[in-house]
Structure formats: structure tokens, C-alpha cells
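Reminder: ligand-aware prediction takes two inputs, not one.
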Amino acid sequence: MPSGQYDFVVVANRLPVDKVGTTDDGEPLYETSPGGLVTALAPVMRSQHGAWVGWAGAPDESGDAFDSDGMHLVPVELSGQDVEDYYEGMSNGTLWPLFHDVIAAPEYHRHWWDAYVRVNRRFAEAAAAQADSGATVWVQDYQLLLVPAMLREQRPDLRIGFFNHIPFPGYEIFSQLPWRRQVIEGVLGSDLVGFQRRSDATNFLRACRRAAGATTRGSSVHVGHGGEGDGHRAVRAAAFPISIDARSFEELASDSAVVARAAEVRKELGDPDLVLLGVDRLDYTKGIRHRLSIFKELIEDGALGDKQVVLVQVASPSRERVKAYSDLRDEVELIVGRLNGDHGTVGWQPVHYLHQSFPRNEMAALYLAADVMLVTALRDGMNLVAKEYVAARHDDDGVLVLSEFAGAADELAQAVLVNPHDIDGTKAAITRAASMSREERRRRMRALRRRVKEHDVERWAQEFLGSLQGRVGARDGGSGIESGSGERER
Ligand code: F6P
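Here is what comes back for the chain with 6-O-phosphono-beta-D-fructofuranose:
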């Protein structure tokens, strides 16, 4: 295949753009929507002449590649059937629940798998067409697990990285997947595979041995049977915990309009003594049902004393056509309705439930208004909300209650860590957070803020790309990751 002209190519399920209209010729018009990933990658994209390959987020959306803010954006078209079978089906009905420890039951359908293979090939071909000879290609996440090997097959000259944003499950769970060998072989097309936590990398290495019969040594997987230069390669798997653009979030939260809005939010809530906050995509992995049950018990027990307490729960709409998500919405809304019905009074309700997405400045105001932030996910790759809360708290106040099952728990040890399945333990943690002294809150928040500011998203991208391009070492150290070979069982 002839090479394209870009030295650096990002391949992700979604493009970093919003559709803002249509041209007179009926072509879609986009604008870049800078999320964490694009903010981190924008300087690399500009300096390394970068292209971003991804789906525009709506079915049958075709359109030519276009340049925006120093980036070349290349839309990949998905038909309505592709969206159903590849995105809602295989990605979010099979891999998402499987990789999140089967909190919801994964479904295995051969026609979903066929669509996944077909669409992954389309992404790989689009990336191969953009990449210059010897370019670096960085593939993102579980929707595109087969892309690295497909790319390598077409373009062995490329340097290929893969980053898994979500957890990688233990082999006892991963081995349910009927296509486990193909998935592992797909990822092993990479030179470097990045994970959020060391435990994810360890699980992946074990899956390489068990599902694909590969030999591993420390953090390396040996691929191919011949000697060096004879199709033999070493693939590294290591932890590179993702982060946020902490400085810009802090700046935003320090803006006087945002600070004023935070005070206004508390007033609008009825000036309660204690504001608890949850911010999540409405996803069963986030533990929203557990959180509401725990909050209900806290109110009924009177464990928070005679404080007037409010829980603000932002639950942004997500994957609404997948049944597990529409069922979850029904359940959450039933629980919230009952809780407010049983415990509210005229003019006051304990839960403020917002099934909406908000702009960044409103989120920053909510973070500033909250005394206690509840990030009680049942399973989460990282959880960037936890890091946003910390970055926003330039007043060194507020307490973060954080699930030990979120990747962020590896880094944010000064949070109040909880097991969200342990109802009494989580209730005690929230009670403790609510009555923590100002001095302890400040000490913990300062340490958390140091960590988040030092390890921001720019550093994450630099460390991954530096490691992929052979400049710096990853934070796996190789130690603690077991070695082995020949465990294949099929
Ligand atoms: O956390 C994984 C992830 O795919 C993110 O990359 C993304 O922002 C989020 O889930 C939402 O997913 P979707 O693209 O399916 O709306």
C-alpha cells in the first residue's frame, strides 16, 4: 500500500469534533471539541504533522477529510447497521461489560463479531492511507483491538502504539470471549501496549500466554517464531495512567464567574449544610444505584446528624440504545423518585438528579460547590472526574471519596478510599468525610493536587510516545510482572 503524508496518526473510535451544520452541498461541517486526549495530543499533532482518524458519531455520516486547528481530521463512515453491530453490539454489548468484570452480562453474537472485524479493517485502512513511511500510529481503546495487527500487515514500516482506556480483566473472565485469541493477536500488532494500571498490564500478559500461547518475559511479549529480523518482535505492555489538562481546569475553576456560580449553586440548592456530588456517564459500571441506596440509608439512619444534606447526581446520557443502559436509567430514576418522594418536603428534595451533560465551566462550579465528591465506581479504567474535582479545588478544600476499583485509586492515595460493595464501610467513609476537620481536608487535598498537577495529560502522552519512540522508560519497571510461556489452552 502506498504511504500517506502524516508522520503521526491517532486512530480512535470517535473524532474529536462536533458537527455544527451542513454546507450548501450537503457536506457536514465540523468543529474540534477539545477533550483531554485532543488537548494532550494537539501540540504533538501540530509539531509532528498529525492526522486523526475516527467516526463522526452519527450513522451514515460521510465527508471528506478536513483540517482544523493544526490537525488533519479523517472521518470513517459507519452505516446504521455498523453502529448497531460494531459500536452498540460488539463494543458496548460484549467487550465493555466483559472488560468491566461482567457487572452486566456480556452477549456473544457472531454477527457482532463479523461487523467488528469489518469495521476495524476500515479504520486500519484509513490510518494506513494517511501514515507516511515510518510514521507513528497511536490506536485508542477497546473498539479497535484488531487495528494494530491489521495495520502491521499492510504497513510493516510503521511504529504502532495501542492504549487501552478501560480495565483489562483477569483471564478467568477474559477467557469467556469466543474470539479471545484473535483479540490478543490483534493487539500484539503493536510495538507498545499501554494500560491504566499495572494490574491491567499483568492481566494482559497472562492472556497473551494463555490465549495465544505467547512467551512473556517481564513486561515483554515475544511474537513470532524465528530469530531477530526473521519476523520476531518484542511487544511491551506497561502502565501509563491517563490524566487531565490539570492547569487549564484549575484556571477555569479560579475564574471569578465560576467561583460566583459555585456560591449561586449552593444557594439554589437551598443553602444546605452539606453538598455531596456524583458526576458520571449513566453507566452501570459507575455504581450510581449503590450510591443512591447508601445515601438513602444515611438519611434514614440519621448518620449525618441533623445536617441538611443534598446529593447532586449528574448522570450524563450515554449509549441509550443499548438495553442495559436504558434499563439502568429506568432503575435509577425510580430510586431517585422514591427517595425524594419519601424524604423530601415542599420546597426541598434530598437528591437533585440531572440527566444532562454540562459545559466545563458549570462542572467546575459544581466541583467547587461540593463538600464531598463521591466517585464510587464498581469498576473504572481511570475515572477522570476524580482528577477534575481535585484540579478544580484551588481552595485546597473538599473531600474525595474514591472507589478502590477505579484506576485513579492507584495514584490518589490521600482520597478516602472505599469498596462500594461494602455498604457499611462506604457509609462510614462518607460520614467521616462529612465531619473531617478543615486541617485534614487541606492536608489531603494539597497532596492530591500535587499529584494531579505533576502527572497531567501532557506528561501521559509524552511518556507513552517517548516510550514508543524509544526515548523514555515506562512506569512498569518490569518487576512484579511475572514471566512465563507455553500456557496456551484452547
Ligand atoms: O472510557 C471509555 C470511553 O470510550 C471514552 O473514551 C469515552 O469518552 C467514553 O467511554 C464514552 O463512550 P462513547 O464514545 O461510547 O460515548
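The CA atoms of residues 136 and 459 lie 18 Å apart. The chain has a mean pLDDT of 92. We will return to this case in the review session.
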